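RETRY 2/3 - previous attempt timed out on the joint model. Re-submitting the same 225-residue input unchanged.
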Amino acid sequence: DAGITQSPRHKVTETGTPVTLRCHQTENHRYMYWYRQDPGHGLRLIHYSYGVKDTDKGEVSDGYSVSRSKTEDFLLTLESATSSQTSVYFCGSGGNTGELFFGEGSRLTVL
Amino acid sequence: QQQVKQSPQSLIVQKGGISIINCAYENTAFDYFPWYQQFPGKGPALLIAIRPDVSEKKEGRFTISFNKSAKQFSLHIMDSQPGDSATYFCAASAYNSGNTPLVFGKGTRLSVIA
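RETRY 2/3 succeeded.
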């Protein structure tokens, strides 16, 4: 399995507070991704990165920002969390083969 | 606009039977089609993948069938076992067009009963 770790694995927060989820990979993968998973919606892309400091928006990027200052780390930030951002967030990484490997997920609850 | 449509949403199969999950796509630039398996509380795991230069790929009990002209691909699980009970996702990307991110279907919850 690809060495991808997400932290925190579980978080409960209140509406309006900032939240940062961290993804760390040890595979030296060029590409990193943040998806959210909600019942009935499958996996939807939030943001992705194709290199250090190179990022782009996905399908559901509103309310989220990302940063990648090192190859191994990809941060997802919710500047002001809302209840609609309650979800399970998955980080993924991959190289030039097209394959994508996922972490174990971060469950976020916004009250 | 859903780029990858997956069916059925749920599937119940008897142990030893064949499980079949179907996906259809619209973007003709898609050229990489993986399937993921996800158990409760875990991240999706890459199961098997196909590129459009072949019409079928088999790995153990898992087979992908690909029909480029129909823009459809399917996952067949032969001799289904209770341990195969999980949620399965198909996905697609345009690998040769800049390695675009994977677009996922909405998933199929498979239950294999004894």
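Chain A touches chain B at residues 1, 4, 31, 33, 35, 40-45, 48, 50, 58, 90, 96, 98-105 (CB under 8 Å). Closing ticket.
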